[in-house]
Structure formats: C-alpha cells, structure tokens
C-alpha cells in the first residue's frame, strides 16, 4: 500500500499553560502600581513658596520704608539747620548795621565838638554833654535805658556795690553815689550800675 504523509492534526488543541501560570498572571494584573504623579497646573499660586517669600518680604519692605523715612528726616533736619544758620547770620548783620547806623550821628557830633576845642572850652563841654545825652537816647531806643539814680534803695538787680560809707543822716542801704551808670533791665541788661551805698548798722 502506498504510504501517505501524515498531515498535522489541525484540530489538536494548544498545549495548556503550566499549572499556576494563569493564576499568577491574574494576580499580577490586579496588583496596583505606584500612584500616578499629579501634574502641576498653573491654576493658582503655590502656597508653599509664595507664602514663605511674602513672609520674608514684608519685614524687609517695612525696614526699607523706615530707613527711607529716616534718611529723609535727616536730610530735612540738615536743611533746616543750614537755613536757620543763614537766617541767624542775616539777622545779626541787620542788627549790627542798625546799631552802627544809630551811632553815626553821635560820632559826627563828637567830631564837631573836638573841632571847636580850641575856640571855647565852655562850648566844648556843652557839646560833649549834648553828645552824651544823644548816645544815651540811642541806647534807650535800642532797649537799654540808663540807670544813674541816687537816693534810691539798693537793688541787686540794677546795682553793684563798689564801696560803702558811714553816714548817720542817710538811711542804710541807700545809693549815695553812682560811679558808673548801668544800662538795661532784666534779661536785656548790659551792665549794672556801680554805686556807693550807705553802710547798714
């Protein structure tokens, strides 16, 4: 008999997987993997970085503002001090000029009196006395009245005792003689009057 080649069995089932393999495959498919990492979105600010940065920036900004205000205050104070110094010097110059101008007529009259010294001594004395009165008037206008009164009670605010005399006819503590007139009162006193006072018992 002729021999026919054997054809493969088309209906033969595939070999079954080894025992337990299917069970492991199903278990592997059920084991959870690492959770998916959330993707960052730009919907809102990150509170961890922004909050920390704002917490640090707030004291720094406040300190810078205080430093700026302090520097401006120092600059204003320096400008005020310079302006006050300029105004004070200007006021001194004005007052000095006003005082010197007030004494110019006194000097003119002294020059006039000296020019007549050889002509008439009596006229020169009267001229000098007039110039003295004029100078006293200028000081009074400037706020420094003259004090040369005698027969008044001793006042330490206006008098400076230079000597004392023992006179029973004069009440003790009375100004007997003015050796040098005083000018001014209180805080505007140029000098006290130098006087001789009756001795106290």
Gist of the model:
With 201 residues, the protein is mainly alpha-helical. 50% of the residues lie in helices and 11% in strands.
Outline the secondary-structure elements:
Elements: H1 21-30, H2 47-115, H3 121-141, E1 146-147, E2 159-165, E3 175-180, E4 182-183, E5 193-198
Parallel strand pairs: 2-5
Antiparallel strand pairs: 1-4, 3-5
Task: Give a verbal description of the structure.
There is one protein chain. With 201 residues, the protein is mainly alpha-helical. Helix 2 runs antiparallel to helix 3 (121-141). The protein is elongated, with a radius of gyration of 57 Å. Residues 1-14 have low confidence and may be disordered. Strands 2-5-3 form a three-stranded mixed β-sheet, with no helix packed on it. The termini are far apart. The longest helix has 69 residues, at 47-115. It has helices at 21-30, 47-115, 121-141; strands at 146-147, 159-165, 175-180, 182-183, 193-198. Helix content is 50%, strand content 11%.
What's the tally of helices? 3
What structural category do the secondary elements indicate? mainly alpha
Query: For the terminal residues, how far apart are their CA atoms?
Result: 188 Å
Shape: elongated
Strand content: 5-15%
Stretches with pLDDT under 50, minimum 5 residues: 1-14
Mean pLDDT, to the nearest integer, reads 77
Number of strands: 5
Largest sheet: 3 strands, mixed
Strand order of the largest sheet: 2-5-3
> How helical, in percent, are the residues?
40-55%
Q: What Rg, in angstroms, do the CA atoms define?
A: 57 Å
H-E order: HHHEEEEE
